[in-house]
Amino acid sequence: MSGATVSFRVLGPLEVTAGGADLSLGGPKPRAVLGALVLQRGVVVSVERLVTAAWGHQAPPDAVGSLRAYVSRLRSTLDSDAACGPRYRAPGYVLEVQDDQLDSAQFTSLVGQARTLASIGDHAAALRSWDGALGLWRGEALAEFDPLLVDPGAELARLSELRLVATEERAESLLRLGRSRAAVVELEALLRRCPGRETVAVLLMRALYACGRQGDALATYAGLRLHLVSELGVEPCAPTRAVHRQLLNHDPDLVPERAWAGSILPRRGADLVGRAADFSGVAAALCRGRLVTITGVGGVGKSRLAVEVARRERPRFADGVWLCELASLTTGVGVSLAVAAELGVHPRAGLTVEAALAEYLSDRQVLLVLDNCEHVLAETAALLELLMSRCGRAVFLTTSREALSVGGEQLWPLVPLDAQDAAALFVQRARASRPQLLLDPRSMVAVTGICRRLDGLPLAIELAAARMPVMSAEEVLDRLGDAGLLTEVSRTRERRHQSLATTIDWSYQLLDAAERRLFVGMSVFAGGADLAAVHAVCGEAGSTVLECLDLVTALVSKSMVVARTGPGPTRFRVLETLRSYGIDRRTADDDLAHRHALYFVNLAEAAAGGVQGRDEAAWIERTLPDGDNFRVAFEHAVAGDVDLALRLVSSLAEVSQLRLGFESAGWAERAVSLAPADHPLFVAASGAAARGAWNVGDFDRARTLALRAAGRDPARGSARTAYPADVLADIALYQGEVDQALAHYAASVEVARGDGDPIRLVWTLYYVAVCQAVRREPTRGLAAAQECLSVADGTGNPTARSMARYALGLVLKKSQPLQALTLLDEAAGLAASVHNRWWQGVALMEAAATRAVRGDPLLAAHDFLEVLDHWQRVGDLTQQWLNLRYVTRLLVRLGAREEALVLHHCITAAGKSSPLDATSADRLLASGSPSVVAAAHGRALRVTDAVAYARDSLVRAV
């Protein structure tokens, strides 16, 4: 084996390979000698210790001579020129092994890498490193040997402990990423093996709590305490008891924000003042019924109360708490689309958006918060009536200035703050901007007067308190009087509206001219904007970004604008009540709407190019928060500027279609219907519209839209999903005409090479490999997949690199399953890093399918639970049916034969081929009882039923 790289594997039974081939090491004794040398690599191991490793403490007289013979044979086996074999160095032997030759060294390195990534908050990348590290283990390290004999340095104990700690830290990353269910599955299994390990129990308690299973979390603590007391005579340690107290108190800080299923709720600012009774009342109402509407005048604090209730109640909801803000919608048409986008649910063929939402939520325990419904009452009420009737476990909390009038609705009228709480709020907000503020009794009298004049409305009080850095309380009270607020009259609803309007007007009048212009200009944004957008759309001519920032900062300090920080740039938003005021101050001839539309079209075009390069993640994070602004920009453009509309939809095909949802594909369809066929962007827009129809499984509409391009291709550099001919080829592929699709993509490969377009070349090579895999000739796709990987890595583009790894993993999954698993896991991680849901889904699915056959079936079962949910959100039924086929096969392997039989009938009754070969299917049918077969036929007509049944079956199986 001279010249071949020798690799040593100790994380499981001892294995040695050279050039990929296993080496024969002989019997147990020479294997034990080699094991001891590997564990002490680079260190001289005495002859005495090696003898003990091989024979124990009762070695024969000729043991030393036999040891020399073993070492000689090992040296010959490992390398004929002895460069890699054991060498004598008094008083024993030494084996030199480099880090890249030893799996335990690679494991330790990957653990360090994962910890570094976790420490900087990149838990997605850390998770991939954890998986790579733990995936090296094939069982207990050198379990065939007695560790006391072969490992006097306790290296095996160190490795086993590091493996356990790595598993715990991986679970922490899962929690940080919001994958609490996945963490529960793994931690429960780990706690069964290590029932007294407190770190595992604490992680499991947190994961269960994040899943809404407080009772199970408390039971975990009780079980841990019982074990510690009965087995060791000790109580749980102080940190564990602290977590137990957090469980009892429903402490929202128990679990990291992203670990909760659902929306990332706005960060808490100051404490909620004077709403304890309201909070308790709304929470109790949510327990009594499934729809609660918080009503009240503008500025009374409805949204703030709803968010706080959602934050504290989320442990009750295993499938998450979701916040959908409707204030930015200009019409009711977008209500369902806005809710679907927040949930990540895509429409699909044969279903309206509303029906897709109802199907997705049908068996999920969620709390859905719809904020600011008053301007879209009818559409919101219609959606809620549908969801209430079809989603028995879902609960809804809405805010509106008036009732929705939906059956079962409970109203919670939110009244202004009483005098004491209003004064407390004023002082809190005043000290937020002036921390050293001292208020003597005379000043407090003025504060009480201010709050009385403002009718206890929190928004009005906050606006007035924002003036305290430059005024005294007495001056604020005097100015409120000068502003013409009503004096003591009956406290009617109309009075409160006027109180708020007058306070807003007073605050507006106190702005200087530049601040007023910027405040009015910012009302054009839907859902807020970052500083770059504010400056570009609303900034004064010739002003710098820093000058614009100074003005924005002044508006924030005066409570006219809210700043929200997050993972991306800080976003600035005008609250809806104030935004309405700003819109009323706009003049009929201002060009804000056009400047707004032009800015976001330019942003979309820049992003469309950027997401084809190395900085794809940065561009996606930059554009994802602006879905509402893109919607407003499109509506402005399509009303009078078709060219601008085509520019937007042809760019958004690359940026948002597989991320924000397929709404932009509908915009493309509308724009194409208005555009001339010879427009330079007509083909790309037609491709974007056709791809959207294909994604939801509407192949007939997709074909019609693609054919409008009359065989033309879009310009070089167009969106990956904007090629009409690709859509036609994909329809052929999914309808069984694989050779037709292969011919198209093979020809397109040559065109891409000729154009020097690496992104297009990756796409076409990817599909050549996929087509060969579908034809069951994966080896014929290997060259295309390998070229795809080489080209993709050259681009540095995450989506391209994900596609290439998927393609290569797909063609290798039967011949080289371990390498395929690594590639598929990498593909899923790369796609997830840029929010590319479709490629993430296919990679997750193929990895789970490969793991089910070649790896750990229980881990595969957990993975399939995630994939079932993924495809139900994304709405791709073609992929979901394929997923159900894989799940059926896994259930057979797990021994869940009756459940597999039910899914078999569901799939075949839907006109799909059986997921099992003929022999397996016959055996499964013969084993099923008549009642099970009858039940299967009863479930066979709806894919939703099959998905729900598959989910329940996997949970029972694991």
UniProtKB/TrEMBL annotation:
InterPro entries: AAA_22 (IPR049945), BTAD (IPR005158), OmpR/PhoB-type_DNA-bd (IPR001867), P-loop_NTPase (IPR027417), Sig_transdc_resp-reg_C-effctor (IPR016032), TPR-like_helical_dom_sf (IPR011990), WH-like_DNA-bd_sf (IPR036388). Keywords: DNA-binding. Transmembrane segments: none annotated. Residues 1-97 form the OmpR/PhoB-type domain. Residues 1-97 bind DNA. Gene3D superfamilies: P-loop containing nucleotide triphosphate hydrolases, Tetratricopeptide repeat domain, Winged helix-like DNA-binding domain superfamily/Winged helix DNA-binding domain. The keyword Transferase does not apply. It comes from the Bacteria. Pfam families: AAA_22 (PF13401), BTAD (PF03704), Trans_reg_C (PF00486). Belongs to the AfsR/DnrI/RedD regulatory family. This is BTAD domain-containing putative transcriptional regulator. It comes from Rhodococcus antarcticus.
